[in-house]
């Protein structure tokens, strides 16, 4: 062997020796409050499906930490002087997980499918004269009447969130569940590893082009720094907390309040809220079935519930409680209001009993669906059920998991035939942001979400608020919406609180995003 070849051979061997083993794959193991039970973020309004959506899909606009829509998939846009014509151009380099480029036609098809199901989408569609593809990267929305929330609608992050999917998938009828989870987002769904209600797995999308802006709320860069995320279901909250403590899990969205002190003493764990405003326990009522088809029976519940009792029953520590919040748009937000509010503090049981008698309550069982696999849902359900017994309601609390509840709540039969009267859901500030986007405030009869409240006046006021461009007039309309909501009671606020999340201290980049997202997160 020549001297030159010998030197090259020794150099190659030395390089191999110093290269060492390939870098280990980084896996983030998370436990969110409930498992993902569906792949379709349009057909389902469940928060778990929305959480799945933020892994897989991207949005045209994202809400920043102040609730302001910022361009995400959109590169730039223009609006006419009369604010009736909006044109949007997608940024370069967007591609779906199957390798196909993202086109304006995909965006238009996704908006149209979403707009048939979501309360904000329907409002946008009703105000739209035409929505058309201009070219491969540009589309246009021409309004037929004023609508002041175009960008907010395109940034819709909850309810049926607006995610962009391929046109061929978006052409699926909105009442038919999609079976493919293909988006252009920062993670790729691993369909072969999915077990509904048990485990979902996502891999980093190597072709995702993050924006250059710093991450801010749900806007800005969505750069991914872990190779794989495993979303595992742990129905026993104590088991999940123990798994976090010993390193089997990296993140737990909603540890039970009574176990928070234990986690705070663990130096290897960080405890902090990722939802800065907090959450609410919403009591959803079925407006189509006795006794709550009568507004007096619904009103009676206002004078039974004490929000502080509910929060204490849930184990929420005093520092994390909002002892009394009557606002449908949450306390501590720019739209906080108490217009028309009553009850929910000191119980007035005789007044409640009188209203129940006036409503003609006949002692029939009241079916209260209870998602026992969520600690907070279960605790608030039990506290409220005990309170309702005090005014003579015959409570039938039926235990089930959240997936079963989300299917059962769509049934319209009488409670004795498999229907229901009430259930609890936990909502956040994005769910209740304003009169239009607050999903459960919608009172559009059969088109409303499960519970089907129906009130023409409330809908007129909500539409007027959405169309009004003058801030002073809009604030006056907000108070009118709120006062009317207290007459109709599409749902009842059981109490506002801040819930802590917990994660291993070697995990960084968890931010207060309200919705749990995992771009920008590193695991050392």
TrEMBL record:
It is found in: Periplasm. Gene3D superfamilies: Dipeptide-binding Protein, Domain 3, Periplasmic binding protein-like II. SUPFAM superfamilies: Periplasmic binding protein-like II. It holds the Pfam family SBP_bac_5. InterPro entries: Peptide/Ni-bd (IPR030678), SBP_5 (IPR039424), SBP_5_dom (IPR000914). Keywords: Signal. Belongs to the bacterial solute-binding protein 5 family. This is ABC transporter substrate-binding protein.
């Amino acid at each position: 062997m020549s001297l030159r070849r010998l030197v090259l051979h020794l150099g190659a061997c030395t390089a191999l020796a110093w290269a060492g083993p390939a870098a280990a794959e980084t896996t983030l193991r998370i436990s969110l409050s409930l498992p993902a039970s569906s792949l379709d973020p349009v057909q389902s309004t469940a928060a778990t499906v929305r959480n799945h959506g933020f892994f897989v899909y991207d949005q045209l606009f994202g809400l920043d930490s102040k609730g302001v829509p910022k361009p995400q998939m959109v590169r730039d846009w223009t609006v006419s002087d009369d604010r009736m014509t909006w044109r949007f151009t997608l940024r370069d380099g967007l591609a779906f997980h199957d390798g196909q480029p993202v086109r304006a036609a995909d965006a238009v098809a996704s908006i149209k499918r979403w707009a048939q199901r979501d309360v904000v989408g329907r409002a946008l569609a009703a105000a739209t004269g035409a929505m058309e593809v201009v070219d491969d990267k540009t589309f246009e929305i021409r309004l037929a009447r004023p609508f002041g929330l175009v960008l907010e609608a395109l940034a819709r992050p909850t309810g049926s969130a607006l995610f962009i999917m391929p046109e061929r998938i978006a052409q699926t009828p909105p009442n038919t569940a999609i079976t493919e989870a293909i988006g252009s987002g920062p993670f790729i769904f691993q369909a072969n590893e999915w077990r509904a209600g048990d485990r979902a797995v996502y891999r980093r999308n190597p072709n995702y082009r993050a924006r250059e802006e710093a991450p801010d709320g749900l806007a800005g860069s969505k750069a991914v720094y872990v190779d794989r995320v495993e979303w595992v279901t742990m129905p026993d909250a104590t088991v999940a907390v123990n798994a976090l403590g010993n390193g089997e899990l990296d993140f737990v969205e909603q540890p039970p309040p009574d176990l928070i002190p234990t986690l705070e003493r663990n130096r290897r764990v960080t405890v902090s809220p990722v939802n800065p405003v907090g959450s609410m326990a919403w009591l959803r009522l079925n407006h189509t079935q006795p006794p709550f088809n009568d507004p007096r029976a619904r009103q009676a519940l206002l004078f039974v519930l004490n929000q502080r009792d509910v929060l204490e029953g849930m184990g929420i520590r005093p520092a994390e409680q909002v002892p009394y919040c009557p606002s449908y748009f949450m306390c501590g937000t720019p739209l906080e209001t108490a217009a028309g509010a009553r009850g929910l503090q000191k119980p007035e049981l005789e007044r409640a009993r009188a209203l129940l008698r006036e409503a003609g309550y006949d002692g029939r069982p009241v079916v209260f669906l209870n998602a026992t696999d969520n600690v907070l849902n279960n605790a608030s359900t039990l506290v409220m059920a005990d309170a309702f017994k005090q005014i003579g309601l015959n409570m039938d609390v039926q235990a089930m998991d959240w997936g079963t509840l989300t299917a059962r709540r769509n049934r319209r039969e009488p409670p004795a035939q498999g229907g229901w009267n009430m259930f609890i859901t936990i909502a956040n500030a994005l769910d209740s942001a304003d009169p239009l986007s607050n999903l459960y405030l919608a009172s559009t009869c059969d088109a409303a979400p499960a519970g089907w409240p129906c009130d023409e006046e409330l809908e007129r006021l909500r539409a007027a608020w959405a169309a009004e461009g003058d801030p002073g007039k809009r604030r006056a309309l907000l108070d009118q919406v709120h006062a009317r909501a207290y007459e109709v009671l599409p749902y009842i606020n059981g109490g506002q609180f801040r819930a802590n999340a917990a994660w291993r201290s070697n995990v960084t980049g968890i931010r207060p995003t309200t919705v749990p997202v995992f771009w920008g997160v590193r695991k050392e």
